[in-house]
Structures are given as structure tokens and as C-alpha cells.
UniProtKB/TrEMBL annotation:
It comes from the Bacteria. The keyword Transferase applies. It comes from Pseudomonas trivialis. InterPro entries: Acyl_CoA_acyltransferase, GNAT_dom. This is Acetyltransferase (GNAT) family protein. Keywords: Transferase.
Amino acid sequence: MFSLTRYTTPCPEPVNSQIVQMVVDNLTDISSVALPPSNLLYNLYQYAIGFEVHLYLEALNGEKGIAVELIVATDDNDPEKVIGFLLYLPVKNDPEACGVAFMAVQAGRRRQGVGRAMMGEVLARYPHVELGCAVEKVAVFEAMGFQVLGARGTQVVMNTRDYGTDGLMGVLDVASIYGSLEVRQIHAYLLQKHGKRAMVDAEKQRDRHLDQLERKVRLFLG
């Protein structure tokens, strides 16, 4: 069994670190880039997505000027262990609406109702929810009451209603992460380790991968 806790203020550091680790461990599953571990850029994206989630967790203190809320699932047999989380952004000017930013469940605890329970907690407060997911996940969210609205790059946009909210949702500007010193250092290390040709090939593989994902979404939507 598991328990759910809702956070609207900063959560304990052990919870934060487990959430970020879950993001890093599940990059392919949780990110719209969905880069496979075989790509040499994988470690770079692990850092960037992990840091992005870290910034959203920091934003729970209200100092970044955006609304952030969090549902955390913990193991009843080990209450200190995080087995899932759902980070979502309430919409300004629309008290019924929010957008799901990140959601993950530990690999060993999937298909046990954790994700459905977390989403149920969100829907109880915000019945108008929007999210983006891979084509393969559409059926999962349809079973939770979502419907397909359209496409956003590599993801299918889904909503609990047949329209999006007119309100404004605050999001962090994460572009600066990819230009940060840390990312440049990771890239320099990978370049030194693998060589320029291999890194150029990795970038081309990434671009082809993203094109394929976008094409898959377009074909799915018909």
C-alpha cells in the first residue's frame, strides 16, 4: 500500500532528492525529448531535466512568482521512500484548471494504482487538467478521463475537457539551463571522452529521433 501527501510549500530535502533521482533514472519516460540511454547526449539531458525539476521544487516557496503544487506517493512499509510524484501548475485566473508538468512512478511500483491515485488527488481540486504525453501513454490517460486535444511537438496534448483553459499558467524559463556552465562542462567532458565526430553523430541521432517522435504524433492524430 501507499500514502499520498500534497505539498504547496517546500517539501523535506530527502523527498526532493528522491524526486530528482527518479527523474534522472526515468529520463526517457518522463521527458518530451525521450532520449534513449544509448545516445551520448543522455547524461547531459539527465542533468538538465533533473535541474529543471529541482527548480520547480524550489518554486514551492513562492519566490519564483509561479504557482506550483506537488503530490508525493510514499511506501506504507517504508514511509521515507518516495515511489511516485506528480508536479502540477495551477492556472492563474481559472481556479478549476492546472497543467501537469512532470509525473513518474518507480518502475517496480507501476500498475498498482499509484499514478491513478495521484491524478485523482489533483482532479479532486482541479477538474480541468491538461498534460502532454507520448503516443504510447494516450490509452493510460484516456482511462483516467482525459481526451486528446491535439499535438505539442513530440507529445499528444490531452485534457479532461474538450477545450484548453483561457487562464495563464506560469512556467519556468528553462532555456538558460542548456546554456549554463554546468551543461557546457558536461558537453566538454563528453567531447573529450568521445571525440567531435561521435558527438556530432549523437546530435544528428537526437534530431532524427525527435523528428520521428513528431511524425508518430502526427500519424496518430491522423
